[in-house]
Amino acid sequence: MNSAPGSTPIDHAGSVVDALGDGAYVLDADRNRVFVNDRLREVTEFDEEDLHAPHPERLVEEGYWSADAGERYREAVERVLAGASDDERVQLTTTLGDGSTVTTETRLTPIERDGAVVGVVGVIRDVTDRVERERELARLNERLERLAGFLSHDLRNPLSVARGYVDLARETGEVDGLDAAESALGRIEAMIDEALVMARDPDEVDTAAEPVDLAALAADCAESGDFGDEVDPAALVVEDPGPVGGDPTLLRRALGNLIGNAFDHAGASPTVRVGVDDRGVYVADDGPGIDADDLDEVAAFGVSHGGGTGIGLAIVKRVAAAHGWELDLGESDAGGFRATLVGAEPMK
């Protein structure tokens, strides 16, 4: 940015800044704000001392910027002042004088005199709405990934059951197994409905609490074929069965995933215990358990320490969030793995 005859480059930049409709300012070579336009004063409601102090140190000190934001801004300005860049853009979250926050993008361009950089012009644009749209798009993409993972993970077993009985009917001409195939298809239909729920934001899910018979729910999980023919229903022990308040369909999905996870990872002949205590609904096994360092990681989507898809526990976490509960992972009394839906309460 060059100056008119008879004025300094920074004076000329200050005149330009005054005429801009966006919030704007001029920094000298020491990163002091030497010109600030009225638009910036109006929007920020900062004191003149804050507006003209060393930048960004004063704004960080006063709490208008975080230390990380201040460091990113300082590094960008230093690159412009050093002549290493003639167009830097920095996205920052600022706490305004009235206590509200705004996300802005500041464009930094150099002020030059005789080929040397003597200052910087900063022009600020409010990008709060754009950033929120980007965040909402990211949340939508995440929910779509959950939907795809949910369907690919949970539909596999009932599809195999239905296909097996249909193939048997074709080979033998016997149709007795078609009832079981129809039941499996019914479970698939229910899972699709559940998947649509799981793809939504937890705050938007209607989870009106109903009394759910935990013993009946656990028995249905064991007898449904969801865990494969090799699972012995007698290995599933129901303790203090409830009933529990929750959405029956979603609680069935969460409990089924927890029981299935236990049978998948607790060894050759595990005992899996289901119940409800003063903390919530729990599923515990007597297998090898999980290292304490891995507990926070295993509930993330796509994480599995046993060769699975890494979807099951993440779905349980989603169901818990929809109810306002929390999924707590730890060690069972038998030294194995225990998962608790903290906040799920018994109903009389």
The end-to-end span amounts to 76 Å
- The number of distinct structural domains comes to 3
Under the CATH scheme, which class of the largest domain? Answer: Alpha Beta
**Spatial sequence of strands, sheet with the most strands:** 2-1-5-4-3
Using the alpha-carbon principal axes, give the shape.
Answer: elongated
Mean pLDDT: 80
Number of helical runs?
12
CATH topology value of the largest domain: Heat Shock Protein 90
The CATH homologous superfamily of the largest domain is called: Histidine kinase-like ATPase, C-terminal domain
Report the portion of residues in β strands: 15-25%
Domain PAC: 86-139
GO molecular function, one term: phosphorelay response regulator activity
Keywords: Kinase, Membrane, Phosphoprotein, Transferase
Enzyme class: transferase
Please provide a written account of the structure.
By secondary structure, the protein is of the alpha+beta class. It folds into three domains: about 10-125, PAS domain (Beta-Lactamase), CATH 3.30.450; about 125-200; about 205-348, 2-Layer Sandwich (Heat Shock Protein 90), CATH 3.30.565.10. It is built from twelve helices and twelve strands. The chain has a five-stranded antiparallel sheet with strand order 2-1-5-4-3, with helices on both faces. Strands 7-9-10-12-11 form a five-stranded mixed sheet. Strand 9 and strand 10 form a beta hairpin. The chain is elongated, with a radius of gyration of 30 Å. One of its GO terms (molecular function) is protein kinase activator activity. It holds the Pfam family HATPase_c. It catalyses: ATP + protein L-histidine = ADP + protein N-phospho-L-histidine.
